[in-house]
Amino acid sequence: MEEIRISPDYNWFRSTVPLKKIIVDDDDSKVWSLYDAGPKSIRCPIIFLPPVSGTAEVFFQQVLALTGWGYRVISLQYPVYWDLLEFCDGFRKLLDHLQLDKFLVDACLHVEEDCPGELC
């Protein structure tokens, strides 16, 4: 992990893309953390959801690459929700807050064998 933190790419990412914290629920303890990079005029971004043990910054390389090609990319770190419906409700509120029309979600870090060259 230390190798990543001292890498030029990671440091460029952290110095150019701010971490935002947003509360969309009535419960102030439910804080969404996100990196939102690329043109804000794009209302149909690619959204990355980290694995359970990861954070929003695990996708920093994807964020850098895709924004370099002109895409808007949002990497999320979600708060604790105790059931799927509660999570979906919070996610919907976040999308409304960000005023997004459509989105593409990706939750994997690598290309799987059954989907070579495509988002998983």
From TrEMBL:
The alphabetical list of record keywords is: Cytoplasm
Which cellular compartments is it found in? Cytoplasm
Gene Ontology cellular-component terms for this entry are:
cytosol; trans-Golgi network transport vesicle
Would you say which domain of life the source belongs to? Eukaryota
Q: Name one GO molecular function term.
A: CD4 receptor binding
Q: Which family does it belong to?
A: Belongs to the AB hydrolase superfamily.
Q: What is this protein called?
A: Maspardin
